[in-house]
Amino acid sequence: MSIQLIPRDPLEKSDVLVVLTGNGFERTDHAVKLFKAGWAPLLLMVGSTGSRPPKEMAAYAVQNGVPENCIRFESQSSNTRQNADNVLKIATDNSWMRIILITSPHHQLRAHLSFRMANQKLGGRIKIINHPPAEYSWFDLVESSRGKDKKVLRFFYIFSELFRILKYRIKGDL
Predict the structure, then answer these.
(1) Among the four residues 18, 41, 125, 136, which has the most C-beta atoms within 10 Å?
(2) In a domain, 43, yes or no
């Protein structure tokens, strides 16, 4: 099995669009676009960290045409591994069989690996479709996921992600 640095799968109709918290609104923009195109009837805003918390992401989605009753929340997880565990528990509880996983391109590999491991522990019943935004300028100066006031050259996120993947692997989280 080969693993892409930025996994992106072909879209399939799904039960929910899972949007991980992070910096800026590109993840939410992408989810809104997929929602409006009919790929899934729900958005699940996930996480408790990042400069854009789930409630802020949801308000942005509503401003851009997603009905409030089509948005759910998971606000307990504080890292990617917890995102995966909590989302897959919610998916199991709701009998969701297919999810579209949305995060930033630089974060998609770690998210993919974390969700894959958590799914394997559940018997691999849920199909996880990786679909980060395609419109993504790697050389923009963007707000940090640590705070809206701090700016970071987006390209450098790829290096921190490779370090985090190694750290997760050592801890046994991947």
Answers:
(1) 18
(2) yes
Contacts of 128 by beta carbon, 8 Å cutoff, 6+ apart: 99, 101, 112, 115, 116, 119
Are 152 and 37 in contact by the 8 Å Cβ rule? The answer is no
Q: Supply 130's token pair.
A: 């990786």
How are strands ordered across the β-sheet holding 127-130? 71-74, 43-46, 16-20, 98-102, 127-130
Q: Is residue 135 part of a domain?
A: yes
Q: In this predicted model, what pLDDT tens digit does every residue of 127-163 receive, in sequence order?
A: 999 999 987 666 666 666 666 666 666 667 777 777 8
Beta-strand pair 141-144/147-153: antiparallel
Q: What type of residue is 139?
A: F
pLDDT tens track for 111-121? 999 999 999 99
d(CA 122, CA 110): 19
Which spans in the chain are helix H? 26-36, 54-63, 80-93, 105-121, 157-171
- CA dist 1 and 92 (Å) reads 26
Range of the domain at 27: 16-171
